[in-house]
Design goal:
The protein is α/β, with parallel strands linked by helices. The chain has helices spanning 2-5, 102-110, 130-140, 168-181, 198-208, 246-261, 277-286, 303-317; strands at 31-33, 36-38, 42-44, 67-68, 85-88, 91-94, 121-125, 148-152, 186-190, 212-215, 219-222, 237-241, 268-271, 290-293. It has a single domain (2-326), classed as TIM Barrel (Alpha-Beta Barrel). Helix content is 27%, strand content 16%. The protein has an 8-stranded parallel β-sheet. The protein is globular. The structure holds flavin mononucleotide (FMN). Flavin mononucleotide binds at residues 45-48, 70-71, 85, 92, 94, 96, 98, 124, 152, 190, 217-218, 241-242, 245, 271-274, 293-296.
């Protein structure tokens, strides 16, 4: 039974049901995200690994499950003035402000580099009105170098400053409009955690046509310099990432998986503070089909590949033949 092989041996209900030991080489680490085949479940998180080959000297990008670019917008953006990154206890606050080269230069300069990665590429797309997202996705959609889009919906709408990802109707309409413009690529929607009920937003994204969800984006936060009494970030507030948010993110992945995604077979890419294979495993047991690593890349750019190798060994040691068998297999305590 699936739930038995998914349990650590010391918790296994019947040790006789455990499979004979697998070797790391025989463990099937592949996963599928809405029809896109990934050789293993580790990805880079948007905004922490550049557009394509910037990290090539520091890690073997071809060993990733997939690569996710930083957010691309219709027009080039300089982003916010410094300071736009500040370290916090167990985390990092950033207010980069979507600095990027814009759609034209992305197509001309960066897309030709994408095949050099040797893995599926998801382009993260941001905008400030529906037409921004639709334009970027429509233009990139026919390009064979791109497997899918990850919509960053944590951006304020120009009309009223409210984020797309915090309003179910608006999110459904946005995703629906992009869906109508995209024929070749898969559509992933990246959810913001800065909402009261993330499940409602997850369902709205699916209703609009999302084929996969990624969660979570950063948590809104602030740090104040106690000498100057000024905010540490020039933007005053920013997004918190790193180990500080991991339990929050695991919880949200679990909520979305059990209440929304599982019954509709929508895969989740989980992220938020992952540093090692145990962190990644928590997300997978909570319901993530794949995991993305962001802030930890600043410490160890080879982290995703190490995590994939370590997860493979973990599964082999427990005689689990396929990574996908452990997705969502957290064993909840009986209700008291
Ligand atoms: C410096 C930095 C830049 C980021 N830029 C983006 C971005 O451009 N688009 C986006 O969707 N998420 C962006 N994120 C959010 C990450 O992709 C990720 O969702 C979040 O940081 C949680 O994962 P982590 O704790 O592993 O970093 C950024 C995060 C950081 C730290």
């Amino acid at each position: 039974m699936l739930w038995v092989i998914g349990m650590p041996p010391e918790h296994s209900a019947d040790k006789r049901t455990r499979r004979p030991a697998a070797t790391p080489a025989t463990v099937d680490m592949s996963v599928e995200i809405a029809g896109v085949q990934l050789a293993n479940p580790t990805l880079t998180a948007s905004g922490t690994c550049g557009y394509a080959l910037e990290y090539a000297a520091h890690t073997d990008l071809s060993q990733l499950g997939a690569f996710t670019t930083k957010s691309i917008t219709r027009e080039a953006r300089k982003g916010n003035p410094p300071e736009r990154i500040v370290e916090t206890p167990a985390g990092m606050l950033n207010a980069i402000g979507l600095a990027n080269v814009g759609l034209r230069r992305f197509i001309e300069e960066k897309v030709p580099q994408l095949p050099g990665l040797g893995v599926p590429v998801f382009v993260n797309v941001a905008g400030h009105c529906v037409e921004d997202y639709v334009t970027v996705c429509r233009e990139l959609d026919p390009l064979s170098e791109i497997a899918g889009f990850e919509l960053n919906v944590s951006c304020p709408n120009v009309s009223d400053g409210l984020e797309f990802g915090t309003q179910p109707d608006r999110l459904r309409d946005l995703v629906g409009a992009v869906r109508g413009a995209v024929k070749e690529s898969i559509l992933i929607v990246k959810l913001t955690p800065n909402v009261t009920d993330i499940c409602t937003l997850a369902q709205a994204a699916i209703d609009g046509g999302a084929q996969a969800l990624s969660l979570v984006n950063t948590f809104q936060g602030m740090a104040i310099n106690t000498d100057t009494w000024r905010p540490m970030l020039a933007n005053s507030s920013g997004g918190l990432s790193g180990p500080a948010i991991k339990p929050l993110a695991v919880y949200l992945v679990h909520q979305v998986y059990h209440n929304v995604a599982k019954r509709q077979s929508i895969p989740i890419i989980g992220m938020g503070g992952i540093r090692n294979w145990r962190d990644a495993l928590e997300f997978v047991l909570a319901g993530a089909t794949a995991v993305a690593i962001g802030t930890a890349l600043f410490v160890d750019p080879d982290g995703p590949n190490k995590i994939a190798r370590d997860l493979r060994k973990y599964l082999a040691d427990r005689g689990i033949a396929a990574f996908r068998d452990i997705i969502g297999q957290v064993q909840l305590h009986p209700e008291v």
